[in-house]
């Protein structure tokens, strides 16, 4: 009766048995009492202990007073405290059963210590040495997770593979659907945790700068998983896992994170960032070559995997930079770094260059991205140069009315304009020849547009009224303006020599515009001369001309005096001017004879006229030879007219006149 009075469950008899059953179950759970679990059945082929389920640990968390305590904390508690706890929960009625439970728990503690000693004797491959009679006990999900967190990755992977095999093995006792789904979910979550630790080790290996022992565990796990992929039949969810492919992806992600950490000072600019990226790639691949690649099996091709990962990561960095709005210098820098600096300083590095070149990694940027950068650079340069040359032309035009020398004008306009273009013509081919050709074609178009504007301004200036352009300064200004043409012509020729298919038309337009400017300036230069020569040309081919050479001598003297003023001319426009002067002088000389101003009434008179023509033709030839005329063929027109005068046969005369008109159309 006393026992019944002290029984806390006397009012509910059935509750007493349920409460006792629940407490006994808790006492039998690990880590409180491994000894209370049933031993493996003799019929079990593997002789392994049954795996503890993770939901059992959830019961401990729901036990009153233990909600915030971790499983590890509960494991460290001593058995006497647990016995006292049970006695307090059961009351006086459960003293005897509490004492028995404490004894059983103590026995379980001894057995657990014995099993832990056996686990410590397990070799590095996770297998028990021969001669031991008992096999390793399967771990629960939480214990496997604890192995992962302690980075005992090989042992954790073995347990996960075994747990996965239990999920999909053909058992004579079917597992309930809910339990099977729970186990499959546990396997998936454990694999996620395992992979996170594996790839964390991969990411830590390169920054260490020396051989990284944890990497061996990663390699062993990869090998175990590949073996498991071969053992499992097709159709099993999650298999094959292909961890080697995932390892390659993890290497690429780690490379991307390493390059993303390269962040020079904001004021350093793009050049410092690119230099930092190159140094990081070379340094990290040097660590891989010396310390990490030898740790992998040869069939992994570890250096190639790391090299391709860094190559792709660097390509992503460049692609991101290419999407940013860049100034012209940065566009040149990025294009040159991609085409020249990277192959020279990274692919050609003495430590890793030969191995990288053997991999044939290819360009960092795809061709369309590189062409886009080149097009952006060309467009930006064109817009910038168009504005600059227009400003130079306007500044130069403002000084044309002032007293400026030919050298000052040439240096102020032609030199500066060609200098603006030359900077890009020399820079672009250093990137690639194709880029240089496209840049030259664009700049040739800019130059043609500029020359059209230059021609219009020269025409407007030279055709201005006398009060705007003083007569005494017209010659000097015309010489200064025409001297700008040779540098422009030479530069247009240089741009056309890059060989762009469409450059010939632009070159022709440039030369045509410069020819117009040259003719316009030459006309201004020779206009005053021919005004002075006109009275003397009118005295030729008259009877007084036969007896006096004053008119012809005056012509020679005026031409000689005029050419002395042409010394500042550049050789090219000088040759054009002298050739034009040569043509016009001979044309004015023979025109009176062809117009019939002098009529020869006898053969004696024709002979006298022919003699005079021969003498003056010789003087004209000598004059223009001294002036370095580029048209010596013009000297033959007067001797041929002289021959016509001595011909008496009408048919022969008509034939010679026809040949003369054909060779010299201007004599008509």
UniProtKB/TrEMBL annotation:
<feature type="compositionally biased region" description="Basic and acidic residues">
    <location>
        <begin position="125"/>
        <end position="135"/>
    </location>
</feature>
<dbReference type="InterPro" id="IPR042532">
    <property type="entry name" value="EXOC3/Sec6_C"/>
</dbReference>
<protein>
    <submittedName>
        <fullName>EX3L2 protein</fullName>
    </submittedName>
</protein>
<dbReference type="GO" id="GO:0000145">
    <property type="term" value="C:exocyst"/>
</dbReference>
<comment type="similarity">
    <text>Belongs to the SEC6 family.</text>
</comment>
<feature type="compositionally biased region" description="Low complexity">
    <location>
        <begin position="99"/>
        <end position="110"/>
    </location>
</feature>
<feature type="compositionally biased region" description="Basic and acidic residues">
    <location>
        <begin position="39"/>
        <end position="55"/>
    </location>
</feature>
<dbReference type="GO" id="GO:0006887">
    <property type="term" value="P:exocytosis"/>
</dbReference>
<dbReference type="InterPro" id="IPR010326">
    <property type="entry name" value="EXOC3/Sec6"/>
</dbReference>
<dbReference type="Pfam" id="PF06046">
    <property type="entry name" value="Sec6"/>
</dbReference>
<feature type="region of interest" description="Disordered">
    <location>
        <begin position="1"/>
        <end position="55"/>
    </location>
</feature>
<dbReference type="GO" id="GO:0051601">
    <property type="term" value="P:exocyst localization"/>
</dbReference>
<dbReference type="GO" id="GO:0000149">
    <property type="term" value="F:SNARE binding"/>
</dbReference>
<feature type="region of interest" description="Disordered">
    <location>
        <begin position="99"/>
        <end position="135"/>
    </location>
</feature>
């Amino acid at each position: 009766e006393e026992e019944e009075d002290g029984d806390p469950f006397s009012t509910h008899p059935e509750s007493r048995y349920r409460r006792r059953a629940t407490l006994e179950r808790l006492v039998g759970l690990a880590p409180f009492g491994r000894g209370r679990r049933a031993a493996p059945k003799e019929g079990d082929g593997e002789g392994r202990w049954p795996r503890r389920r993770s939901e059992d640990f959830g019961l401990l968390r729901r036990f009153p007073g233990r909600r915030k305590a971790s499983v590890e904390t509960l494991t460290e508690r001593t058995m006497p405290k647990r016995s006292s706890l049970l006695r307090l929960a059961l009351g006086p009625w459960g003293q005897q059963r509490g004492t028995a439970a404490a004894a059983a728990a103590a026995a379980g503690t001894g057995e657990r210590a014995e099993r832990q000693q056996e686990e410590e004797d397990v070799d590095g491959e996770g297998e028990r040495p021969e001669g031991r009679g008992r096999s390793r006990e399967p771990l629960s999900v939480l214990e496997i997770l604890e192995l992962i967190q302690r980075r005992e990755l090989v042992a954790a992977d073995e347990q996960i593979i075994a747990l996965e095999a239990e999920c999909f093995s053909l058992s004579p006792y079917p597992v309930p659907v809910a339990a099977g789904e729970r186990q499959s979910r546990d396997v998936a979550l454990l694999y996620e945790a395992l992979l996170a630790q594996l790839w964390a080790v991969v990411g830590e290996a390169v920054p260490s700068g020396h051989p990284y022992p944890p990497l061996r565990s990663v390699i062993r796990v990869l090998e175990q998983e590949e073996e498991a992929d071969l053992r499992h039949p097709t159709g099993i969810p999650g298999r094959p896992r292909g961890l080697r492919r995932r390892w390659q992806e993890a290497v690429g992600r780690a490379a991307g994170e390493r390059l993303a950490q390269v962040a020079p000072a904001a004021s350093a600019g793009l050049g410092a960032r690119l230099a930092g990226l190159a140094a990081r790639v070379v340094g990290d691949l040097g660590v891989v070559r010396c310390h990490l690649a030898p740790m992998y099996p040869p069939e992994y091709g570890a250096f190639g995997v790391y090299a391709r990962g860094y190559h792709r990561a660097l390509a992503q960095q460049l692609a991101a930079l290419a999407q940013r709005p860049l100034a012209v210098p940065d566009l040149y820098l990025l294009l040159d770094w991609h085409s020249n600096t990277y192959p020279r300083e990274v692919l050609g590095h003495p430590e890793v260059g030969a191995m990288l070149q053997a991999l044939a990694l290819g360009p960092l940027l795809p061709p369309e991205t590189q062409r886009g950068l080149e097009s952006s650079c060309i467009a930006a340069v064109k817009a910038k140069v168009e504005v600059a040359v227009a400003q130079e032309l306007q500044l130069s035009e403002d000084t044309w009315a002032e007293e400026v020398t030919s050298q000052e004008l040439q240096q102020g306009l032609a030199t500066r304009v060609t200098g603006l273009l030359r900077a890009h013509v020399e820079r672009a081919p250093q990137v690639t020849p194709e880029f240089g050709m496209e840049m030259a074609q664009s700049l040739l178009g800019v130059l043609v547009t500029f020359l059209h504007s230059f021609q219009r301004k020269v025409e407007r200036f030279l055709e201005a009224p006398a009060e705007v352009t003083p007569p005494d300064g017209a010659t000097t200004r015309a010489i200064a303006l025409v001297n700008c043409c040779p540098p422009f012509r030479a530069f247009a020729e240089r741009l056309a020599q890059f060989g762009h298919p469409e450059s010939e038309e632009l070159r022709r337009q440039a030369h045509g515009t410069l020819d117009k400017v040259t003719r316009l300036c030459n006309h201004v230069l020779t206009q005053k001369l021919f005004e002075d020569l006109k009275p003397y040309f009118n005295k030729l081919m008259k009877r007084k001309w036969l007896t006096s050479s004053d008119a012809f001598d005056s012509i020679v003297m005026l031409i000689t005096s005029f050419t002395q003023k042409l010394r500042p001319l550049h050789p090219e426009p000088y040759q054009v001017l002298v050739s034009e002067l040569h043509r016009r002088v001979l044309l004015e000389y023979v025109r009176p004879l062809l117009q019939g101003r002098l009529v020869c009434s006898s053969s004696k008179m024709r002979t006298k006229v022919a003699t005079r023509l021969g003498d003056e033709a010789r003087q004209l030839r000598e004059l223009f030879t001294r002036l370095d005329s580029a048209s010596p063929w013009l000297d033959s027109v007067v001797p041929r007219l002289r021959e016509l005068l001595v011909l008496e046969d009408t048919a022969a005369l008509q034939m010679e006149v026809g040949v003369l008109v054909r060779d010299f159309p201007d004599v008509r």
